[in-house]
Design goal:
The protein is an alpha+beta fold and 51 residues long. The chain is built from one helix and three strands, in the order ββαβ. A three-stranded antiparallel sheet has the order 2-1-3, covered by helices on one side. The N and C termini lie far apart (26 Å).
């Protein structure tokens, strides 16, 4: 999961060793502190298992 700010250089990612919960919490905190819009991407894309 990768979350990033649309208005400044802020970002957080599970690729940096954080859990999805920590990344989401950091994104919420960034929004509350700055009022900036945060968007996200899922990294890596989910794996589809076919039977």
């Amino acid at each position: 999961m990768y979350k990033y700010c649309l208005e400044c250089d802020w970002h957080a990612s599970t690729a940096a060793g954080y859990t999805e919960h920590e990344v989401s919490k950091a994104a919420i905190e960034h929004f509350v502190e700055t009022g900036h819009t945060v968007d996200s991407l899922r990294l890596p894309p989910p794996v589809v298992i076919e039977n």
